[in-house]
Amino acid sequence: MSNSTITASPAENTKPEKAKKPASLWSDAWYDLRHSKVFLFGAALALLLVIIAAFPSLFSSVDAFNPSTCDLSRARDGIESAHWFGSDNLGCDTYSRVIYGARVSIIVGIVATLATSIVGGFLGLLAGFYGKWTDVLLSRVAEIFFAIPSILGALLILAVIGRDNAGIGSVVLALSVLAWPLVLRIMRAAVITTKSQDYVLAARALGAGPVRIMVRHILPNAVAPVIVVTTMNLGVFIAAEAALSFLGVGIQSPDISWGLMIADSRNRFLEAPAPLLFPALFLSITVLAFVMLGDAVRDALDPKLR
Fold it and tell me: Alpha-carbon distance 236 to 291, whole Å?
């Protein structure tokens, strides 16, 4: 009898593969963001700016809030080893003031963004879910605020508050009061689209209450457009704060703001351009960083762009 070789069929050697977890919008978005150069660059830049705002003393040995560090005899001196960005009209180190000025811009941007997201998102969730008179009432109120130009309205609010009472809180209030209707509209539209999905109807048929349906089923699937808008709003609010400070109704001395530094240096720009150029450069970089983040997040969360 001849020796016969018994070979196993491919099916016998193949081990059962693990069932892959179904992909979701958030997992796909996170994968896209991790491989997006625009997101990585914008996130690194934004993280650096946040660290500068939180720990300015790590980046500057000069305390910008200490008047004794200013030397009027060295006013408007150019760039040198002791003053990397030159000195301003009062002989203060421009570099240290630029570093310490990041705190105001970042705080205003983050707090105003959180305020508008929470208020607009909550009201938009209610308007889209309940509809009828709730939707009509909230939508009409939002339209009233939409009719007011943002910068003009903020100027009016801050003028009423007065320069003596102006500060971070008043600037955040002025920006937030006029910006929440945009978030409301976006959240409302997303909720109206989501609440007609089969899984929401199934949850309602199983006896889930309105709060549970909104929190567990609608909100996680409707929040993506709001995240995109709020990420971009960070840069918008930072630029708006600088504009209001430049116009003299926002942050006031002795606080430090990039917009205030630009306003103080504009009349002597030809004589000493550095005190104006460097705050403007940092302001532009900051706005660019958050706009890049917003663009990357939008590309990752928008299914139409896939």
Answer: 8
pLDDT at 74: 66
Distance of CA 51 to the CA centre of its chain: 15
Q: Which residue, 33, 31, 47, is CA-closest to 289?
A: 47
The DSSP string of 236-302 is: HHHHHHHHHHHTTSSS-TTS--HHHHHHHHGGGTTT--HHHHHHHHHHHHHHHHHHHHHHHHHHHH-
Query: Do the domain assignments include residue 230?
Result: yes
Residue 211: CATH number of its domain? 1.10.3720.10
11-32 mean pLDDT: 58
Cα 69 vs. chain centroid, distance in angstroms?
33
pLDDT of residue 303: 57
In a domain, 90, yes or no: yes
pLDDT tens per residue, range 50-94:
998 888 888 877 777 777 776 666 666 666 666 667 777 676 778
Assess if residue 34 is contained within a domain.
no
Q: How far, CA to CA in Å, does 206 sit from each of 200, 213, 267?
A: 10, 11, 69
pLDDT band for position 111 (cuts 50, 70, 90): very high
Residue 276 makes CB contacts below 8 A (sequence gap 6+) with 261, 262, 265, 266, 269
Q: List, in order, residues 6 or more apart from 234 with CB less than 8 Å away.
A: 109, 110, 113, 290, 293, 294
Indicate whether 185 pLDDT > 70. yes
Reported pTM: 0.81
| Domain limits for position 230 | 86-305
DSSP structural state of residue 230: H
The total domain count for the chain is 1
